[in-house]
Amino acid sequence: MHEIISSLSEASFLLDLGSGRGSFDKMLSRGAVIRVDVEGGAAAGERFILADAPALPFRAGFFDAVVANHSLEHFRDLDGALREIGRMVKSTGALYVAVPDSASLCDRLYRWVGRGGGHVNHFSAPRTLVARIEQSTGLKHVATRFLLTSFSFLNSRNRKARPPRKLLLLGGGNEILLVLASGVLRLIDRIARTRLAVYGWASYFGELSVPPPTEAWANVCVRCGSGHPSDRLKRRGLLYRCPQCQALNIFTSDASYGHLTY
After folding, report:
1. Alpha helical stretches, state H, 92-174
2. Which alpha helices (DSSP H) does the chain contain, by range?
3. Distance (Å, rounded) from C-alpha 76 to C-alpha 231?
4. CA–CA distances in Å: residue 260 to residues 123, 138, 192, 200, 201
5. Which of helix, strand or coil describes residue 35?
6. pTM for the full model?
7. Strands of 239-241's sheet, edge to edge?
8. Nearest Cα to 215, choosing from 119, 155, 145?
9. Residues 4, 96 contacting (CB under 8 angstroms)
10. Contact 215, 254 (CB under 8 A)
11. What is the pLDDT of residue 151?
């Protein structure tokens, strides 16, 4: 999504739809960032509006860009939400959408541990969703890339409340075990050309001044969940430290996922 966020001008408006506490750091954008969700609120100093995605209080063509980062799977009225996106974004605007693949191992684990995880829409075919978004918003599809998991949502270091009992069957969310599991799945994917570590995909629509990446980033931090292209990582042997949080992870070349095609 950074290709869209970082290219906006100071006079632009960016909508973070279904934002929770925020899908990205507002400092990444020079324009005004408005967060919208049906519950909760943003951090101090953030612009936050409590509203439902199919009925948003903005005039037509108000936004230069919209980010829907892992939110479409939560919208009960998905078609209504997509129509609202199409109404509010400029015809020259841009849209970023990321969703989980409901058929993936990662999303199945997420829903099993989290009792559904609030996912009311299940997506398993990128082309089908892309066509649906194009039809509803009027924005042309630019690119789609696959997203890989590190199972950071299972990591016990990321939990403040008592973990669900089901997590005990998965090693209690121990970080070292998650690092090893993540590495093993990537090794199997590389050898057998499977997609065990894939959890979803991200699609770009509209007019983008910066070409978005299309390759899958194999290295996703087991602690903070941030992904990094393999050619930018400094590693020692099989390990690298996450540039974001310094956690140790097993290194995998992005070329291992060259078999993934949109």
Report:
1. 105-113, 126-137
2. 2-5, 78-88, 105-113, 126-137, 175-192
3. 40
4. 17, 27, 12, 12, 11
5. strand
6. 0.93
7. 235-236, 239-241, 248-250
8. 145
9. yes
10. yes
11. 95
Question: Mean pLDDT of all residues in the chain?
Answer: 93
What is the rounded radius of gyration, in angstroms, for the C-alpha atoms of the chain? 18
**pLDDT tens digits, residue range 37-63?**
998 766 667 888 999 999 999 999 999
- Nearest 5°: CA angle at 109, between 231 and 212? 35
Question: What are the Cα distances from residue 254, in Å, to 198, 216, 238, 259?
Answer: 13, 6, 14, 10
Nearest to 73 by CA among 12, 136, 129: 129
b/e sequence 106-126, b meaning 16+ C-beta within 10 Å = bbebbbebeeebebeeebeeb
Please report the sign of the dihedral spanned by the C-alpha atoms of residue 68, residue 72, residue 75, residue 77.
Answer: positive
For residue range 79-98, list pLDDT tens digits in order: 999 999 999 999 999 999 99
**The residue count for the chain:** 262
The pLDDT of residue 42: 66
- Which residues in the chain land under pLDDT 70? 41-44
Amino acid at the residue 98: A
